[in-house]
UniProtKB/TrEMBL annotation:
Family affiliation: Belongs to the outer membrane factor (OMF) (TC 1.B.17) family.
Subcellular location: Cell membrane
Cellular compartments per GO CC: plasma membrane
GO molecular function: efflux transmembrane transporter activity
Coiled-coil stretches: 438-472
Topology in the lipid bilayer: Lipid-anchor
Keywords from the named record: Coiled coil, Lipoprotein, Membrane, Palmitate, Transmembrane, Transmembrane beta strand
Protein's name in the database: Cation efflux system protein CusC
Keyword Phosphoprotein applies: no
C-alpha cells in the first residue's frame, strides 16, 4: 500500500511538473514596420554603381595598390577575421550539443571497507571464489564507455545552432562592412593628400608672386611713390604665406601616416601623382532604387541576420520551460582480478536509463532569460530599421552633395579665373599709379584663397563620389 502511494505521489509530481512547464509568459515579438521609399528623387533606374567592384571603380594604380595592401595587412580587418573564426567555432559547438556525448575511460584501484560496516560484515561471510574469502583490500579494474544524449524534442538545441550560424553569417557581413569603410577611408585620405600637395604648390607660387610684388614696392618706395608701410605690409604677407607652408606640410605628414596606419605599416612616403588633381573627372553616379540597399548594404544585412538570430533565441529561451529528455547508457568490464577482466558475461556490466526533468520551483532565472530574449528581439528590430533609415539618408545626402558641389566648383572656377586676371590688372594699375598697394595686396590674397578653395572643393567632390559609392553598398565585392 505504501509503494502504491509513493508511485501516485511521483506521478502527481510529474503531472504538476508538466503542467507548470506549460505556463509560459506570453510576450508578442515586434515586427518590422518601416516602409522603404520607392525611389531617390523619383528615379526608377535600377542600375547601381554598388555592383561595380572597387578595382573597377577606382582608376589610380597607386590608390589600388594601397587598398590591396590594406585588405591584407590592416589590423582591424584581421581582428574581424578572428571574430569570424570564433563565431564559426560557436556553430560547431552548438551543432555538437544535440548529438550524443560519449566518453571512454579505464581505471584501477584498491578498495578497503571497514569490517564493522554492512558491506564489511557481508564480505566476511562470503567467498570471492570457492575456498577464498573476500580480502580486506580488494583490487578493482574497469574499462567502459558512457554516453549521454539529450533528445531535442522541442528543437531547443537545433535552434541554438541555427542562431549561432546566423550570428556567424552576421560577423561575415560585419567584416564586409568594415572592408567598405576601410576602402572609403583610404580613398578619402588619398584624395586629401593630393589636395594638400596642390595647396602647397599654390602657396609656393604665391610666395614667389608676393616676393615679386615686394620687390616692386621697394623700388616704388625709392621713388617715393609708396611709404614704408606698403613695404612692411607686403613683407608681412610673404612671412604669413611662408609660415602657412609648414602647417600644410604637417597635415601632409599626418595624412600620410593615417594611410600608413590603415595599410598596417610604419611611417613612409605614400606614392602618388598630384599633378593633375583638379583635372580629375567626376563620374556620374547611378544610384538604383532604395530597396537595393537591403541586398547591397552589408550593415543592413548584418542587422537582418542579427534580427533572425534574435527571433530564434526567443524560441530557445521558450523551450527552457519544457521538460528535458536525457538518455544515459554505459557498457564495460569490471573485475577484482585482471585475469577475470574480460570474462563474459561475468565481468560485463551495462546500464541504460532515461530522465525527464522540468523546472518546478523558482523559475525566475528562466523567466528572466525569456524576457531578455524578447527584449533583444525588439531591440534587433529597431536596430534593423535604424540601419535601413541611416543608409537611405546617407545616400540622399551624398547624391545631393554631388549635385551641389558640381555647381559650387563651376562657380569657384570662374572666381579663380576672374581673380587671376585681376592680379595682372591690379599690378599694371599700381605701376602706373592708378591703384594703391592695398588693392594689389588684397587682390593677390583673394586669388590665393580662391585657388585653395577650388582645390578643397575638388577634394570634396572626389570624397562625395567615394562616399556615395560606400553608402550604396559598394566596395566589399
Amino acid at each position: 500500500m505504501k509503494m502504491n502511494n509513493l508511485i501516485k505521489l511521483i506521478g502527481l509530481c510529474l503531472i504538476v511538473c508538466l503542467f507548470d512547464s506549460c505556463q509560459i509568459p506570453q510576450i508578442a515579438t515586434k515586427k518590422v514596420s518601416l516602409l522603404i521609399p520607392d525611389s531617390y528623387a523619383g528615379s526608377k533606374d535600377t542600375v547601381t554603381v554598388s555592383k561595380t567592384a572597387w578595382r573597377a571603380f577606382f582608376k589610380d594604380p597607386a590608390l589600388i595598390a594601397l587598398i590591396d595592401s590594406a585588405l591584407e595587412k590592416n589590423q582591424e580587418v584581421n581582428i574581424l577575421m578572428q571574430e569570424i573564426q570564433l563565431a564559426k567555432n560557436d556553430v560547431l559547438a552548438k551543432q555538437g550539443a544535440y548529438l550524443p556525448f560519449a566518453t571512454v575511460g579505464a581505471g584501477a584501484g584498491v578498495d578497503k571497507v571497514g569490517r564493522y560496516t554492512s558491506q564489511g560484515a557481508s564480505d566476511a561471510n562470503n567467498e570471492i571464489v570457492p575456498g577464498k574469502p573476500v580480502p580486506d583490500a580488494l583490487q578493482n579494474y574497469a574499462i567502459g564507455i558512457n554516453a549521454t544524449w539529450e533528445i531535442d524534442v522541442w528543437k531547443k538545441l537545433r535552434n541554438a545552432k541555427k542562431s549561432a550560424l546566423l550570428r556567424y553569417l552576421s560577423t561575415v557581413e560585419g567584416k564586409n562592412f568594415m572592408v567598405t569603410h576601410l576602402i572609403a577611408e583610404i580613398a578619402n585620405s588619398y584624395y586629401e593628400l593630393m589636395a594638400l600637395d596642390n595647396q602647397l604648390t599654390i602657396l609656393n607660387q604665391n610666395i614667389e608672386l608676393y616676393q615679386n610684388s615686394l620687390d616692386i614696392v621697394r623700388i616704388e618706395k625709392q621713388y617715393a611713390r609708396v611709404t614704408e608701410l606698403a613695404v612692411r605690409r607686403f613683407e608681412a604677407e610673404v612671412f604669413k604665406t611662408k609660415s602657412r607652408q609648414f602647417s600644410i606640410k604637417q597635415q601632409i605628414v599626418e595624412t600620410e601616416n593615417r594611410i600608413n596606419f590603415l595599410v598596417g605599416r610604419f611611417p613612409q612616403a605614400v606614392l602618388r601623382n598630384s599633378t593633375h588633381f583638379t583635372d580629375l573627372a567626376i563620374d556620374s553616379i547611378q544610384a538604383g532604387i532604395p530597396s537595393q540597399l537591403l541586398f547591397n548594404r552589408t550593415d543592413i544585412k548584418q542587422a537582418e541576420l542579427a534580427l533572425k538570430a534574435a527571433e530564434i533565441d526567443v524560441n530557445v529561451a521558450k523551450a527552457e520551460f519544457y521538460p528535458s529528455f536525457v538518455i544515459n547508457a554505459g557498457l564495460g568490464y569490471r573485475a577484482f582480478n585482471a585475469k577475470y577482466f574480460l570474462d563474459t558475461p561475468e565481468s560485463l556490466l551495462f546500464n541504460l536509463g532515461g530522465n525527464l526533468v522540468a523546472p518546478l520551483i523558482n523559475r525566475n532565472a528562466i523567466k528572466a532569460n525569456f524576457y531578455s530574449a524578447n527584449n533583444k528581439q525588439v531591440q534587433a528590430v529597431y536596430e534593423y530599421e535604424r540601419s535601413i533609415l541611416r543608409a537611405h539618408l546617407e545616400v540622399v545626402n551624398q547624391l545631393s552633395q554631388i549635385v551641389n558641389l558640381k555647381k559650387s566648383y563651376d562657380l569657384k572656377s570662374q572666381q579663380v579665373d576672374a581673380l587671376t586676371q585681376s592680379i595682372e590688372i591690379s599690378s599694371t594699375l599700381f605701376k602706373s599709379a592708378r591703384a594703391d598697394y592695398m588693392e594689389v595686396l588684397l587682390t593677390q590674397r583673394d586669388a590665393l584663397e580662391s585657388k585653395i578653395e577650388l582645390v578643397e572643393t575638388k577634394k570634396q567632390q572626389l570624397n562625395a563620389q567615394v562616399n556615395v559609392y560606400q553608402a550604396l553598398g559598394g566596395g566589399w565585392r
